[in-house]
Amino acid sequence: MIKEILDRPVPATMLVVALLLVTTWGVTASPRSIVLFMMFQGSILLLYFARMPSALKAALTILTLGVLMPILGTINAYYMEIAIQVGIFVALALGLNIVVGLAGLLDLGYVAFFAVGAYSWAIFGSPQANLIFGGSHFPLSGWWFFVFLFVGVAVAAGAGILLGLPVLRLHGDYLALVTLGFGEVIRVLANNLDKPINLTNGPKGITPINRPPIFFAPLLQWLGIDPDPNVIYPLYLYGLVLLIVGATVLANRRLEDSHIGRAWEAIREDQTAAQAMGVPLVRMKLLAFACGASFAGTVGVLFSAKQIFINPESFTFMESIGVLAMIILGGMGSIPGAILGAAVVTILNLQILKGLSLWLNELRNAGTVIFGYDLTNLPTQLEPAKYERMIFGLILVLMMIFRPQGILPAQRRHRELEEER
Amino acid sequence: MDFDILIGIFPQVLLDGIILGFMYALIALGYTMVYGVLEFINFAHSEIFIIGAFVGVEILLSFKAAGWLDVLPWALVLVIILVAGMLVSGVVAVVIERTAYRPLRHAPRLIPLISAIGVSFFLQDVIRLVESLWRNSFNLVYPTMDVLNHRFELTETIDVSVKSLVVIVAALFMLWGLHTLVNRTRVGKAIRAVAEDQAAASLMGINVNRIISLTFLIGGAMGGGAGVLFGVQYSLINPYTGFIPGLKAFTAAVLGGIGNVPGAMLGGLVLGLLEAFAASYLSLLTGGAFGAEYKDIFAFSILILILIFRPKGLLGEIVRERA
């Protein structure tokens, strides 16, 4: 039924607009209702599926993400946090999508590049660099943050090439294992490079990391808005995330349709045939690694500025697998898939599991009895919010068995996902 | 630098390395046997291993609660937990193969690998969930048994605890058992045949699916046994403990030549020794600049180097018929 409505432009537009408005109004009316916020997110999904003129769709998307979401975010700050996190993971997923989805190289250490980007700004955007270079020239001012968005690209791409050069001869599962090892190496290094030279401050992490300046503060004052950093910063970061995600999507789309993207897909489908057709294997694979890594690098810079504090705990193997689960859920090699996957998994982790935890705690504290079982007896160690791995694991196994092409499969046929016989 | 210290701790480090090495060897067998028959990295093997450790600790804790721990002879208790750990882990491995790997048998190679990673993550949290509900804690400690902690002083600086000896003896026994099974029995011959050529083995009347299940059972049992020994030796376990030893055991399997049973044993020993020496000497040799924390990096670097320069491993080329 819904599909029929979504296929006809006029009813579809009406339905989507109505839903967006109703849910926005709902959240403003009761800001703490997770269900209503999820319905808002659901209407964004419907917007994607609805058939309507592309200009109208673009306008509605911009309106939703650029106006409605910030409104909801100021009403409930946690929703803004979720939106920012979703954005960060969408950008990461799009980056990994290049390596795994397009080029078919299973990278299990992707978070290492994220870490490289994050640490590059964390070190220079905090007093940490004084410990390395001496003097007191650091932290660099917030303006440098914008430079470091590009430095992050360069450094992470460099790390990608550095990893890629020796390991690209390997294929399939061995490559996966080596990248996993590389990810762990980077994490162990970050954990231990507080001596002999204090580069990363070890497990204690680096803080405070400078944030980009609110350069438009005078404008806000002129408009009569109080530029309270506590209110403005989340919105500002959200805007930056949107910009980066937009740039990432654009880059992904351009790459996918370029001769480079086609070369990647040729390598993924059949390496030998691709080589025979004149695709330079090593160069193309290195390029895939570097491109994928560079997205992670930029996002890393943004992440460290958002968090103000980073330590190696944020860059574990679990994060790599989380991002992998996102693109597998959405569909390997599919841009809308990566976006959807990242959104679903992040929302599941931050919103649903956390909500479940809170709900269970409330029930426990209220001494509720369900089916004769007194919930106060529930073990205190049982926290649904901590079961991310179970979610990731289930996604990976179930998707591989029942729908390896993902929820929103890539347009072009994937031979590697189909049975060989 | 104090040269005497370096020499002085050598035998102790050697002993630690051997224990670690046997542990890795036992886990590595699971990876290598499965790789031998299916050409597939069973990523969930590290969890199969830690399940063994959890079975062991659960039995010990319930024995302790029932007051049996002081009554029953310690050797019997050890045999019970070892056998139980092997049995449960073996069965879990077979179930995993049935549910998560068999439907993907003919899929392209990355698909079952991703599924295996999923199983690994899933199992970690399942263990956590079960232990949280059951004991309200998922960080468990092996109950102490006084006999096991007794130490023999060999010289002034070197001593051996009973549990280390137990671990070495049990590991040797398990390795010997596996070796006999693979090389001297009909079933072992069938396993080798399936590893060599599935289609031909099936034409010779071997039930390939059954042999694959059996391989998972044996590999899982070895992993589970290693888990119990790990718990006895190092006491502290949680659902995520298995991951790093599992990864290192995989490194050991690759080091020895993946798919090769003697190779896994050799690789395990070599890696265990290297790691023990790295852990104790790195800090001494670099004047404290690089400590024992780098031993993990050391193992991964070995993995990377081996894969790049000698992907067939130490014994990979000599033995083509894989077990």
Describe this entry's structure for a reader.
The complex is a heterodimer of chains A (421) and B (323). With 421 residues, chain A is mostly helical. Chain A contains 17 helices and two strands. Chain A starts with a helix and ends in a 19-residue tail after the last helix. Chain B is mainly α and 323 residues long. Chain B has 13 helices and four strands. In chain B, strand 2 (151-153) and strand 3 (159-161) form a beta hairpin. In chain B, helix 7 (162-184) packs antiparallel against helix 10 (208-234). Mean pLDDT of chain B is 87; it is low at 318-323. At the A-B interface, helix 9, helix 15 and helix 17 of A face helix 5, helix 11 and helix 13 of B.
Radius of gyration of chain B: 20 Å
Shape verdict of chain B: globular
Helix/sheet category of chain A: mainly alpha
Number of helices of chain A: 17
Question: Largest contact between protein chains?
Answer: A-B, 55 and 51 residues
Give helix % range of chain B.
Answer: over 70%
Helix content of chain A: over 70%
Number of alpha- plus pi-helical segments of chain B: 13
Count of DSSP strands of chain A: 2
Mean pLDDT of chain B: 87
Query: Main β-sheet of chain B, in a few words?
Result: 2 strands, antiparallel
Shape of chain A: globular
Distance, first to last CA of chain A: 37 Å
Classification by helices and strands of chain B: mainly alpha
Query: What is the chain-wise order of helices and strands of chain A?
Result: HHHHHHHHHHHHHHHHEEH
Unreliable stretches covering 5 or more consecutive residues of chain A: none
Radius of gyration of chain A: 23 Å
The spatial strand order of the largest sheet of chain B comes to 1-4
Distance from first to last alpha carbon of chain B:
47 Å
